[in-house]
Amino acid sequence: MKKTIYAMIILFAASALVIVSGCSDKKTDEKAKADSSQVYTCPMHPEVVSNEPGLCPKCNMNLVPKEKAHDHSEMESSSSMEHMPEMESSSESDSKVQQYTCGMHPQIIVNEPGICPICNMNLVPKIHKGRGDGAVLIDPITRQNMAVATTKVDSKKLTRTIRVYGQVSYRESEQFTINVKIQGYVEKLYINETGVHVKSGEPLLEIYSPELVAAQNEYLIAYKSFDSEDGRSSTVRPRLLGATYSRLKNWDITDEQIKRLNDSGEATMTMTIKSPYSGIVTDKFVQEGDHITPGQDLFKIADLSSVWISAYVYEQDLPYISYGQKVTITSPSLPGEEITSKIIYISPFLNSNRQAEIRVNIDNTKNRLKPAMFAEVRISTITPDHSIFIPRSAVINSGMRQLVFIETAPGEFRARDIKTGMVADGDLVEILEGLETGEEVVVSGQFMLDSETRLNEAIASNSGGGNAHQQH
């Protein structure tokens, strides 16, 4: 009997051991199977997939466990089911609960202010969606938080002032070069430095020239021969006198010097060269004792009784300038003083900086303006008629189009395409098409309105595309 009981106990223990061992093996197999199905990926590079944990070969970040496909789908299904009632009732709750979103990531929407989990930007109040007709609706509290401000469209004569910098320069028509037409030697210089003011007829230098001495003697012989009784009756001697006289004149010998030669009856060893112009000596190319040749430059003289101011205007400003247009000029060398003049020249071509030169003539009889001085030139253009205008800050310029937001009703805003013209003083912009006086245009916060409009358009476009696909 005892043997039978012991045998049953041993048989029962063995069975239990087999059952426990089987369960353990089953759990181990399931764990191994689960471990073998677990894969790892990089958060930054999801294309990197590995069966074992480690580092991403592209960015060296730690690989993280990748969610299973069925788990992910279940989570998405569960999430969508959980959020379905909220999506259906969002239109009802929008007017009651203020939501917040990220300007850079509009998919982030929460019911409390905070920080975007993607870019760490402060969340801003979310604008209520429009009615599907392009309008954007916002409540007064959201409007205040967004600092949305409007102003009325108005009209008046606009003024555009162009400010350019220029320099005082010589008038090209008042610059002169003095040279000689004979060969000789400089015996004496009367003007021996630059910057000296000379008058017309003032002596510049004395020159000794054997050719000039010979020409004087020939002239005296012809003159004495013509002055006799036989000479006056002759037809050859007057022509000879005229030829020698013209020869001296061609060498810039003045009538006064020739008369003195007649009176003295003797040729001089040197002849004085006088200035034919008045002005400032800007350059001197000769020294006492120099040997000079015909055509050699000796002096350069500039008349500074009137000067130019040359300034350069960018091509976008050229439509607003014209010949004879009045300008106002100021200079650091004339503090507190303004000079008015008119444009006398507009260059027919642009320089390498895409600028056109303009010139203004200024009276400088008091010699207060010096060449190379800086000056500011202000050119004002006034529209002939009243023009519709708005602040330039109200315009959203995307490159291909320009638009503004109009408040059509309290809290209701719509985008409208416009065409702009001149940018006027006071940061105003002329409106050629798209607006009328009296309308309320948004001047602050319009970029948030534009962002919401684009988001609504994208959502509507995606929804329309999906419906079309299902119908198809």
Structural write-up:
α4 packs antiparallel against α6. This protein has four domains: 64 residues; 109 residues, Beta Barrel (conserved putative lor/sdh protein from methanococcus maripaludis s2 fold), CATH 2.40.420.20; 92 residues, Efflux pump adaptor protein, beta barrel domain (Elongation Factor Tu (Ef-tu), domain 3, Beta Barrel), CATH 2.40.30.170; 99 residues, no CATH class. The C terminus is likely disordered. β4 and β5 form a beta hairpin. By secondary structure, it is α+β, with helices and mostly antiparallel strands. The strands form eight sheets. Strands 10-19-22-21-20-23 form a six-stranded antiparallel beta barrel. The radius of gyration is 48 Å and the shape is elongated. 30% of the residues lie in helices and 31% in strands. The relative contact order is 0.12.
The residue-averaged pLDDT reads 79
User: How many DSSP helices?
Assistant: 8
Roughly how many Å apart are the termini?
85 Å
* Uncertain stretches: 16-28, 30-35, 68-95, 465-472
Largest sheet: 6 strands, antiparallel, barrel
CATH fold group of the largest domain: conserved putative lor/sdh protein from methanococcus maripaludis s2 fold
Range of strand content? 25-35%
Total tally of structural domains: 4
Architecture (CATH level 2) name of the largest domain: Beta Barrel
Give the neighbour order of strands across the main sheet: 10-19-22-21-20-23
Which CATH C-level class of the largest domain is it? Mainly Beta
| Overall outline | elongated
Rg over CA atoms, rounded to whole Å, is 48 Å
- Helix fraction, binned, reads 25-40%
Q: What structural category arises from helix and sheet content?
A: alpha+beta
Number of strands: 30
